[in-house]
Design a protein that fits this description.
The structure holds two protein chains of two kinds. Chain A is of the alpha/beta class. In chain A, 36% of the residues lie in helices and 20% in strands. Chain A has three domains: 245 residues, 2-enoyl-CoA Hydratase, Chain A, domain 1, CATH 3.90.226.10; 192 residues, 2-enoyl-CoA Hydratase, Chain A, domain 1 (Alpha-Beta Complex), CATH 3.90.226; 36 residues, no CATH class. In chain A, strands 1, 4, 5, 6, 7, 8, 9 and 10 form an eight-stranded mixed beta sheet that branches. In chain A, strands 11, 12, 13, 14, 15, 16, 17 and 18 form an eight-stranded mixed beta sheet that branches. In chain A, a hairpin with a 2-residue loop joins strand 4 and strand 5. Chain A is elongated. Chain B is an all-beta fold. Chain B contains no helices and eight strands. The chains are: A alpha/beta, B mainly beta.
Amino acid sequence: MGSWDSEVEELKRRENLARVQGGKAGIAKQHARGRLTIRERIDAFLDPGSFQEHGKATAIPDYDANDELIGFVPANYVVGLGMVAGRRVAVGGEDFTLKGGSPNSAGLRKSVYAEHMAVNYRVPLVRMLEGGGGSVKGTGRRGGTVGEPIHTEPRFKIICDAMGQVPVASAALGAVAGFPAGRLVASHFAVMTRHTSQVLIGGPALVERALGVRMTKEELGGAQVHASSGIVDNIAEDEYDAFAQIRCFLSYLPSNIWQRAPRVGNEDAPGRTEEELLSIVPRDSNAPFDMRRIVELVMDRDSVFEMGALYGPSQICALARLNGQPVGVLANDCTVYAGAMTAEAAQKYRRFVETCDMFHLPVVNFVDQPGFMIGPEAERNGTIRYGMAAVAAAVQASVPWASIQVHKGFGVATAAHYGSDAYVLAWPSVESGALPVEGGVAVAFHREIAAAEDPEAKRNELENQLKDARSPFPRAESFAVNELIDPRETRPALCDWIEWIQPKLEDLTGPVTFPIRP
Amino acid sequence: MARREIESEVAGNVWKVEVAEGDTVAAGEVLLILESMKMEIPLESPESGRVAELRVAPEDSVDEGQVLVVLET
C-alpha cells in the first residue's frame, strides 16, 4: 500500500515557496516605499485569521531535464475569501514585491478569477490595487500561439458583470496604471492613499513620448488630482484608513443584489427632535447654510459616510442609517454655486442613484436645488445631457424614495430629486417654481421692465411682489407635498417612513432594469 | 513668515470686503463675501495672520481658483 506522503510534502514545500513572494529583498523594498505587501494588506483588512486563499501553489515553475523543480516564481496576484465584520467577501491584489506588479501569467489568471469568485459565491469584491497592467515584454512564450482564442469571453465582461451583482470596492495603494486603473473605476467605491498612490492611464514615460510633457507620476495622477477628478470617491490618509473606509462602505450594503441591506441595531432614538433645525436655514434666501449639518442631525448618530465630497461638490452623496436601516442620502450644498447641478455633480448623482437602486437602498434626498448650472462653461460641458441622465436615474429607480424640500427647488434639475411614489416633506423655508424669482422676473416681465420709467425699480418691485406671495402653505393645502413639517420633526417623520417601506423592501431583491456602469 | 494665497472656490462677484491690507485676522474670520449664483458666500481666513495683499475690490468678478487674498502667517 503506497501513500501519497511525498506529494503532500512537496505540495507543502511549494505553498511555502509561494508565500515567500518577492523574497526578503522584495519585501524590504516594498516596506521602504512606505507600503505594505499584499499579504499584509489582506491580513490588515480582513477579520483576523479569516483569509482562505485560492490557488496557494500557483506559480511559474522551472524544471530541469529530470523534471526536478529548480525555479519557482510565485503568481504575483493573491486572491481568496475572508470575512469582514463576520460577512464573507472576496479579496485580491497584486503582489508588488514581484516584477513590479505587472502580471506574470499565473498572476493574471488569478486576477481575472477574483471577479468570477465574487460573482460565483455572491459576495462583495475588494481589490487592493498596485500595478502597471500588461507589459510590452509580454507574458507568453515566443513561437507559440498568440492572443486569446477567438471564442474566449472578453476579459472585461466579468468585471462589468460583477458591478451589476455584488458590491465592488477598490483601493489604489501604489502606482496603479493601465488595466488596474480600469479595475479601480469599475467599482461602487474607490479610495486612494494620499501620499503613496498614483492613478494613471499612462505613466510619465508614455506621456513624455506621446505629448512632450514632462511630469512626475504624482503630478499626473496623485491624490491632489484625483480627489476632484471623480475617478476615486475618497482619499485615505494611509493604507489602514483605506481598509477602514472600505469596511465602513460595505457595512451599508447587502452581500449581493439578491439580499437585503443589513439593518443593524440602533441606539439613537427614532423620535429624536433637534432644536437647531428650526433656524438652520436663514430667512434671507441668499444666505448660505450648512447642509451637511442638517444631514448629520437627522440621520442615526455617527452613521453618515460621505463619498466623493470634492467631485461635483455642489451635490452631496452619502451612505447613512435611519433607525438602523441603511439608506442613500442626497443633498445639495448651497455654498458651492448655490447647489446647482453641474455636469460633474450630475454624473456623481447618477452613479450614486444607480448604486442605491441596484442594492435596493432607500433614498433620502434633502433638496435645495436652484437648477442646472448655467453659463458658457456649463454649456461647453454638456451639462444638460448629464443632468437628464441624473433625472432618468431618479425617475426610473425602483427603490423607496423620500424627499425633504429644505429650500430651493427650481427648474428641470429638480426633477432629479424625486423618485416614483416619493414621500415628500416640505420645510417652511421651501421655495420652488420654474425659475428663481430673481432671474425669472427679468425674463418673464422683460417688456414691462423695459417700458418702465425706471427699469431697475420696476424689476425690484415685481420681484418683491412675487417674493411676498411665496408662502409654504399652498403646497400643503393643495396636497402637492405629503406634509409641510416642523423641521425639528424631520427625523421622527423619516423613521416612521422607514417602517412603512419595509414590506416593499422585503420584495425588492434581484436585478433592476438598469444596473450601474463605471 | 509664510505667505499663504487664498483662492476663490467659486466663480462670482465680490460683494463685500470685510478687511483691509495690514489687518490682523483670526482663523475663521470672514475676509470678504462673494456673490455666486445669488448666494452670498463668505470667504473665511483658514488661519490667523496679517492681510498682506487684498487683490480684489467690491463688484470685481472672480474666477474659480483665483487668488483673492494673500495672508502672512
